[in-house]
Design brief:
Strand order of the largest sheet: 1-2-3-4-5-6-7-8
Keywords: Biotin, Disulfide bond, Glycoprotein, Secreted, Signal
CATH topology: Lipocalin
Protein name: Avidin
Subunit structure: Homotetramer.
GO molecular function: biotin binding
Shape: globular
Number of domains: 1
CATH superfamily: Avidin-like
Distance between the termini: 50 Å
Organism: Serilophus lunatus
CATH architecture: Beta Barrel
Oligomer: single chain
Strand content: 35-45%
Length: 147
């Protein structure tokens, strides 16, 4: 009886620890990336779909930077500790769209980190200019602490 109780205690601690780590990677909140851009995920539904807004710190246009909407999905099929996700930013101040894909991690200091790769597609006037329409890059986001 004692061995069975000990087994179930260890098993529930192990399962509970896994559940805690998965919950730690909740995307809802405020984030900043390595270039100083800010992302806020305002809500996420039970299927992992989320929405929010993005305020970039960098741009290749001369237009005034405006906050832009984002929509995305978190992989919910299997709730592992480091979930994958993707989101699209529809830029409010230019005729381009950026898609991000990434994964959430907890670093060695216990801080949340979003490692992402992005593709930015800009409008071009004709097919001959298609070669210069897409840029690719990476960003690392960290959670902004509440004030």
């Amino acid at each position: 009886m004692v061995q069975a109780t000990l087994f179930f205690l260890v098993l529930s601690l192990a399962l509970g620890a896994h559940g805690l780590s998965a919950k730690q990677c909740n995307l809802v909140g405020r984030w900043v990336n390595d270039l100083g851009s800010n992302m806020t995920v305002t809500r996420m539904n039970g299927e992992g779909n989320f929405m929010g807004f993005y305020h970039t710190a960098v741009t290749a246009t001369d237009s005034k930077i405006k906050v832009s909407p984002l929509t995305g999905s978190l992989q919910r099929t299997n709730l592992k500790a480091n979930p994958t996700f993707g989101f699209t930013v529809n830029w409010s101040f230019s005729d381009s769209i950026t898609v991000f894909t990434g994964q959430c991690f907890v670093d060695k200091d216990g801080k949340l980190v979003l490692k992402t790769m992005w593709l930015l597609r800009s409008h071009v006037e004709n097919i001959e200019d298609d070669w210069k329409a897409t840029m690719v890059g990476i960003n690392v986001f960290t959670r902004l602490e509440s004030q």
